[in-house]
Amino acid sequence: MAKRTGRGKGLYRDCRAQATINLDGSGQAKAASGSGFLDHMLLALARTANMDLVAEAEEGLWRAQSLGKAIGLALNDALGDRSGICRYGSASVPMDESLADVALDFSGRSYLIISGEFRGERIGDFEVMLIGPFLEALSNSAGLTVHIRFYGENDHHKMECIFKALGLALRQAAAKGGMGIPSTKGVI
Description:
The protein is an alpha+beta fold. It has a single domain (about 1-175), classed as Imidazole glycerol phosphate dehydratase, domain 1 (Ribosomal Protein S5, domain 2), CATH 3.30.230. Helix content is about 35%, strand content about 30%. It contains four helices and eleven strands; from the N terminus they run ββββαβαβββββαβα. The longest helix is centred in the C-terminal third of the chain and has 20 residues, at about 155-175. The protein is globular, with a radius of gyration of 15 Å.
């Protein structure tokens, strides 16, 4: 269950995973996902989003998915009713031969599109096929529409571009950007 902690801060804990987010942080992060590579990606996400993140997951088959859910719910909690945020964000991040484009909307309607391919089955200790469930759980629990396009030769570079572009787009969308809820309907 999520605990309301006020504008900019969010917390989510359950028996499988937990996450704490401070949207007004400085990019500090601690991650214990059970995968050194995924921890590296979460640190990159927090740094580029300029948010503080503490995330950890218990052992198990659904670890990446549980962690994505926990981070998404903490993010949702931190945004509250989404009043005063910009709502939309997009970023392109290159890394050598690779590039990722991410566009997102804190619409309250979750949807995930990923366009691109990885060459291998693993990057270090991380199974590449787990990125989809991780991002889908994040999108679903944050009420976030996310479009991701990427290409390149090196799987590590492609994955890192995705997480950094996601971080920059999150920073832009969650930034303070006006008065009220950014919707013609008055609710997100």
